[in-house]
Amino acid sequence: MAEITWTDEAKRWLEDIFEYIAADNPRAAGRTVQGIFDRAQVLATFPEIGYRYTASSRHVRILLYGHYRIAYLIKDDRNVDILGVFHGSLDITRYQL
Questions:
Q1: Single pTM value for the model
Q2: Three-class DSSP category at 33
């Protein structure tokens, strides 16, 4: 079973998502962030479940949750680093993954 680590950048993305949604609906913000976190937990058992992100030279994959894309790296030891969480409307090619 793979170990999942959230990078500081990914944690900041989650905080930003929470704050943005919470401005209108704090409960929905909590549910959304918890849903993203819960969805990422599947990577412990199935790290290859997301689709390959071909704009990166590393083993970066994308897992979908609703309107969000969870970008993650499968490391050589088969553990997973969550790199960021992006809303589907964002152009993630602007970010170095």
A1: 0.91
A2: helix
